[in-house]
Amino acid sequence: MRYGVKIVFQRLLGRDIADRDVAVYPDDTFLVSYPRSGNTWTRFLIANLLHPEIEVGFANIESLVPDTAALSSRTLKRVSRPRVLKSHQYFDPRYPKVLYIVRDPRDVALSYHQFHRKYGFVQDDHSIEQFVSDFVAGRLISADWGTWAENVASWFYTRGQGPSFLLVRYEDLKRNTELELARIARFLGVNPTQDVLARAIAKSSAERMRELEQKQQNEWIGTKKHRKDISFVGQASARIWHQKLPATSVCVIEKAWGELMVALGYELSAAAGTTRKTR
């Protein structure tokens, strides 16, 4: 009873974490992805694109591209409009405009495993094989956002062809950052010069983000209370699963989500009959 009263009181005061209950305005744009799909990098790219006069870092990213799962309803209502908001939510019909970042789930699994270790959700000896099993079955701490496939499909198949939806693959963003960021800029209604694009990309590099994390990790809600020996900014690589993900785990992911992966342009190794070494 006491817990229930506390929740009601927090909501009345606007102190509850917004997340699924965030107030949505007609001029909002939501940057959405399943966790560990490149959302934080894209937040930096967008913040540096829209605010070239500001030194963007972890200390101020929440005021520039706020995280709906980290901030209160009251705080988010105070953000100047039009807002670009980060979200990991599955399909919400209220979101007027959505930029969705998708990443190969085989790479997501590796990155998310490290994230779970950093946040203490699993122990260091928790095997990647067991983690992938839980990842596919929806037994992770992020279960309320659905599995990778549930989250991606909920947006891809409902909004995929609409003008208010832009799908960007992490791998394409890595391969040709300037081209993909220009697409994102047009979607956001801005027309940056080549110099602005280049500066935004340079100021959002993985190397610079790692440096900023080291300097500001005690100032950012995403890192200040968690272990410091594992970086929040990961390897920032594409197709790393080829070297690091056991073949059995690759097969588990492809068997569960192969049809959706193919629809998104990801080649299935199992279907191609390739043989790879495990770690």
Roughly what percent helix?
40-55%
Give the distance, in angstroms, between the N- and C-terminal Cα atoms. Answer: 50 Å
On the 0 to 100 scale, the average pLDDT is: 88
Q: Which geometry do the CA atoms define?
A: globular
Number of helices: 14
Could you say which structural class the secondary elements and strand pairing correspond to? alpha/beta
The main sheet comes to: 4 strands, parallel
Q: Assembly state here?
A: single chain
Strand content: 5-15%
Strand order of the largest sheet: 2-1-3-4
Succession of helices and strands: HEHHHEEHHHEHHHHHHH
Low-confidence stretches: 1-15, 271-279
Number of strands: 4
Radius of gyration (CA) equals: 19 Å
Explain the overall architecture:
The chain is α/β, with parallel strands linked by helices. Helices cover 47% and strands 7% of the residues. The chain has helices spanning 2-13, 39-50, 61-64, 73-77, 105-118, 128-137, 148-159, 170-175, 177-187, 194-202, 206-216, 241-244, 247-263, 269-272; strands at residues 29-33, 84-87, 98-102, 165-169. Strands 2-1-3-4 form a 4-stranded parallel β-sheet, sandwiched between helices. Helix 6 (128-137) runs parallel beside helix 13. Mean pLDDT is 88; it is low at 1-15 and 271-279.
